[in-house]
Amino acid sequence: MKKNANDITNKATERQMRKVLLIVTTVIVVSMGAAFWAFSHAMKAETCVRYHGLQDMIASKMVKTLKSMETNAKNVFDEVGKHLDSPEAVIAALESKTSLAPDVRGYFAAFEPEYFPEKGRWFEPYVHQYADSSDFVLSMVGSARHDYTRSAWYVKAKELQTGFWSDPYFYYDGTGISGHYCTFVKPVFDADGKLACVCGADITFDWLTKQLQRIDAQYQDYGPLNEYRMMRGLNFYSVIIDKGGSCIVHPDNKKLPITDEELLHEMQQNKCGTLDMTVNGEASTLYYGPIEGVDWTLIVVTPKQDEMKPILAVGIGLLVIAIVCVMIVWLTCRGMKND
Q: Model's pTM, two decimal places?
């Protein structure tokens, strides 16, 4: 009879221990799961703020770079505006200011048809460098083959009557001038307020790429950005997309064309956002936003794997802690049972 009572008591104790173990295990698992959920969301928010801030800083640096180029170009164009009395004076004015911005591929003045009757319909002196030389030379590029009066930048300058950056384009004439360009364009008016010409300062995609890489390099070692790495390499690179979705500036072998219509619409509306995308075979996160003053979008690209490192590490750590805690509770219950 006594043995049966002890068996009943042991079974009751065992059931109680199982309940305690189950309850404690549930509490531990739920607590660790909640902690992981909170940490992962906090890390994602921190990463989003970090890289959107980075995207904004890089875009602002690029704006300053372009503004500096604009200022130099306007000085050249103002000099042209002061010397509209003869074609020779215009050419001399262009040549006299080339030292203002040696990174500019060339300056041109595309005149209204017959503005200088002796020059006929097309008069477009272009003071420029070749790709393999830093010396500026003079070319006359206006012709029936290159009717600049029909070019989008020329028409737009006449309509807006103010300066702007042209859409990226490829110019080809079979010479060393051929290449991919963006141009700061500004109409120039004579003393009577009549449009005399449309001036432009050409910069190449190569120059833009070097400037963007220089800015990226500055922020790779930027102190505040590199605080609290939490095992992340904080690897990133930047690209520039035009309004049509073409990647006009990018590191070697990291071109990123955008074809998603909804995303293109957002970019054209100058919106900021985040998008997960596979880039060159690697799962990545894109942080995008506009570049002020031009119809371009700057995108900061980061590897998804790098972003997930602290989340995975904390997840594994919490899992280990949970297992250890459950084992301790189980061993404690087992010891109490034996006692």
A: 0.82
Strand residue runs (E) in 147-281: 164-165, 169-171, 179-189, 195-204, 237-242, 247-249, 273-279
Which 3 state secondary structure label does DSSP give 287? strand
With cut-offs at 50, 70 and 90, classify the pLDDT of residue 13. Answer: low
Cα 241 to Cα 255: distance, rounded to the nearest angstrom: 10
C-alpha angle 97-101-102 in degrees, rounded to nearest 5 = 100
The predicted structure's pLDDT at residue 150: 92
CB 306 within 8 A of CB 235: yes
> What CA–CA distance (Å, rounded) separates 307 from 310?
7
3-state secondary structure of 186: strand
Q: With CA atoms as reference, report the closest residue to 69 among 294, 251, 295.
A: 294
Of residues 12, 13, 6, the one with CA closest to residue 333: 13
Q: Residue 194 — very low, low, confident or very high, per pLDDT cuts 50/70/90?
A: very high
Of 245, 235, 148, nearest in space to 187 by CA: 148
Give how far the C-alpha of residue 292 lies from the chain's centroid of Cα atoms, to the nearest Å.
12
Q: Residue 110: which H helix or E strand, with range?
A: strand 106-111
- Cβ neighbours, 10 Å, residue 149: 16
CA distance 45 to 62: 26
How, if at all, do strands 164-165 and 282-291 pair? unpaired
Q: How many CB atoms lie within 10 A of CB 306?
A: 17
3-state DSSP helix/strand/coil % of the chain, to nearest 5: 50, 20, 25
Task: Tokens for 196, please give them.
Answer: 């005399």
**Own/partner pairs, 142-149, CB within 8 angstroms, 24+ separation:** 142/110, 142/111, 145/173, 146/122, 146/173, 147/122, 148/110, 148/122, 148/124, 148/198, 149/110, 149/112, 149/113, 149/122
CB count in 10 Å sphere of residue 68? 12
pLDDT of residue 287: 93
The answer to whether 116 and 161 are in contact (CB under 8 A) is: no
Give tens-digit pLDDT for 265-300.
Answer: 888 888 899 988 888 888 889 999 999 888 899 999
